[in-house]
Design brief:
Family: Belongs to the PanB family.
Strand content: 5-15%
Cofactor: Mg(2+)
Subcellular location: Cytoplasm
CATH architecture: Alpha-Beta Barrel
Radius of gyration: 23 Å
Number of domains: 1
Shape: elongated
Number of helices: 11
CATH class: Alpha Beta
Distance between the termini: 66 Å
Function: Catalyzes the reversible reaction in which hydroxymethyl group from 5,10-methylenetetrahydrofolate is transferred onto alpha-ketoisovalerate to form ketopantoate.
Catalytic activity: (6R)-5,10-methylene-5,6,7,8-tetrahydrofolate + 3-methyl-2-oxobutanoate + H2O = 2-dehydropantoate + (6S)-5,6,7,8-tetrahydrofolate
CATH topology: TIM Barrel
Number of strands: 8
Helix content: 40-55%
CATH superfamily: Phosphoenolpyruvate-binding domains
Bound molecules: 3-methyl-2-oxobutanoic acid, sodium ion
């Protein structure tokens, strides 16, 4: 299993780091089997698995439940779990007990926290307690209400500078990795050059140290439309819809079950009957 030290070495060697989200045992097994370097149990599960409109309703119990399934499905891959909405903004002791649940109860290898500012102090405390932390800057979906939508971040000078400052502070606080979402490509490049920790981008251009995408997005599984920054590699919606229609048709027309699907009682053998 690759660890935070290996990810740093990959950055030094300019070897791209592949992160993919997973939410259950089969998606985790697919990520591991497909060669992902690191799995993220993203709170995007609120949308792609649980049917919420945003990541805001996702709870600690949800993250624990799904992280356990992911760990069972991918036994040899580093797993990072998102700390959900408002679980790292109160007293440090609350942040610590939430992270402890993810690490001890769910066996996550690291946690991810969105945002700069005061969140950086929480990162420092977690790291000093032995919790590997990934920071997350740029578009931070848990703050969608404050940001006013899923918009590209860091487009003007002030936003760009604030983001660079937060990134430097996150590294100094001991973060092992930085995820940046929906920012201009030039800013993704600047961040990767500035930091010694790996910068993993999503909608952050071609020059970050690694890339992360959402499992359901690359498979077109669930939502019909995916954002511009996604590459779709398969169309599961189409495959699944066709398969389910075939099943309903087969049952309604009587062509399922067929002879090969049914069971018969034991045939009485002639000699057993004493004939
Ligand atoms: O929840 C998630 O899937 C994420 C990634 C998009 C980075 O945070
Ligand atoms: Na997330």
């Amino acid at each position: 299993m690759k660890t935070t030290a290996a990810f740093k070495q990959m950055k030094e060697k300019k070897e791209p780091i592949v992160m993919l989200t997973a939410y259950d045992a089969p998606s985790a097994a697919a990520a591991e089997g497909g060669g992902a370097d690191v799995i993220l149990v993203g709170d995007s599960l609120g949308m792609v698995v649980l049917g919420y409109e945003s990541t805001v309703p996702v709870t600690m119990d949800d993250m624990v439940h799904h992280t356990k399934a992911v760990r069972r499905g991918a036994k040899d891959t580093f797993v990072i779990t998102d700390m959900p909405f408002m679980t790292y903004h109160g007293d440090i002791s609350e942040t610590i007990s939430h992270a402890r649940r993810l690490m001890q109860e769910a066996s996550a290898h690291a946690v991810k926290l969105e945002g700069g500012g005061e969140v950086i102090d929480h990162i420092a405390r977690l790291v000093s307690g032995g919790v590997p932390v990934a920071a997350h800057l740029g578009l931070t979906p848990q703050s969608v209400g404050v940001l006013g939508g899923y918009k590209v971040q860091g487009k003007d000078k002030a936003e760009r500078e604030a983001l660079l400052t937060d990134a430097a502070r996150a590294e100094k606080a001991g973060a092992s990795m930085l995820v940046v979402e929906l920012i201009p490509e030039s800013l993704g490049k600047e961040l990767a050059n500035m930091l010694t920790i790996p910068v993993i981008g999503i909608g952050a251009g071609r020059y970050t140290d690694g890339q992360v995408l959402v499992y359901h997005d690359i498979l077109r599984y669930g939502a019909a439309n995916v954002p511009k920054f996604v590459q779709v590699y398969a169309d599961l919606n189409e495959t699944i819809q066709t398969a389910v229609c075939s099943f309903t048709d087969d049952v309604k027309t009587g062509s399922f079950p067929a002879a090969e699907h049914v069971f018969q009682p034991l045939e009485p053998k002639d000699n057993e009957d004493g004939k």
